Amino acid sequence: MSCPLCDDTGWKPLEREGVRYVARCDCWRESAGRQRLDTANIPKRYQHCTIDNFKVYNESLERAAAQARKLADEFPSVGRGLFLEGQPGVGKTHLAVAVLKQVMHTAGARGLFYDTRDLLRVIRGTYNASTHTTELDILRPVMTADLLVLDDLGAEKTSEWVEETMNLIVNTRYNERRPTIFTSNYEDIPDDTDPNSLLFRIGYRMRSRLHEMCEFVVLDGADYRMMPTNGGVDDLMTLWHTRKKTLPSRSSGRQARAQLRAPAKDGKADLKWPGGRAGS
Hints:
CATH class: Alpha Beta
Mean pLDDT: 86
Strand content: 5-15%
Structural class: alpha/beta
Order of helices and strands: EEHHEHEHHEHEHHEHH
Radius of gyration: 22 Å
Number of helices: 10
Number of strands: 7
Largest sheet: 5 strands, parallel
Low-confidence stretches: 251-265, 267-280
């Protein structure tokens, strides 16, 4: 069925003070918005996510939702992106996608979502002689998107190539002042010997860039994936309190991990970590 306003031309006729002119039709804007979303690479599991349906039940989640809403409402007049840090299942990806969707809808922004490991896999795939996609074909939209979401930073296995590739992406967006939203399960502590720290996973140079590029927001909550079917906020509150009781504190967790480092014959610590350190 054709649009009654523009007859599917994308332009609707208007008149003001006796002067006739045309303007973009609402149907065209909606179609363009859907097309932008289709090319944003948002996983189906997260396509329903909005800031309004993000479940808030404690102060840390309230702050995170407020920061996300502020970025979405003020875009593109924003100076920094977001770095969402927290345990698995607390809603980091939900909030990141919610902001991405909103700025694409309200500001017409070119947005893009990538799981960090998937992005690196796609880039590696361009080295296959049988493919017709080049590395630049993948990197160009990642580096030039108006808003980029890089999910699960630090989960990738570290190597010199990974470090160089990720630093190229982050440094380019840093230099061009393009807002980026990162999520990570790794704690941002200044400890480059702890394999569960962000610094260990990404190195000093990238961490320094991220602190200038982003507002760091810690989400503390329950694992949403453990909520019973048809559960609600009360169930999440119960799960959250249970998690707080059963999980070691951040400091005790670091002490426990330190005990796993057996001294090597030369007296240096053995980190017992197959991925190696960032920059190694």
